[in-house]
Amino acid sequence: MRTVSTGPTRTYGATATSSALVAIALILVGCQLFVIPLWLLPRGTAWGWLLPLLVLTNTPLWSLLHETIHGSLLRDRRWNDRLGRTLAVAYGAPFALLKAGHLLHHRFSRTPRERTEIFDPGRSSWGARAPGYYLRLFGGLYLSEVSSLLLAPLPKRGWAWVSRRLEDPETVTSLLLDTVAARRLGAFRLDSALIVALHAAAFAAYGPHWWMLPAALLGRAFVVSVADNAYHYATPLDEPLDAMNLSLPRPLETFILAFNLHGVHHRHPGLAWPDLRGAFLADGGRFDLSWWHAAVRQIRGPIPATADRLRGRGAVRPPGGDG
Question: Could you tell me the residue ranges of all domains in the chain?
Answer without folding.
Answer: 15-316
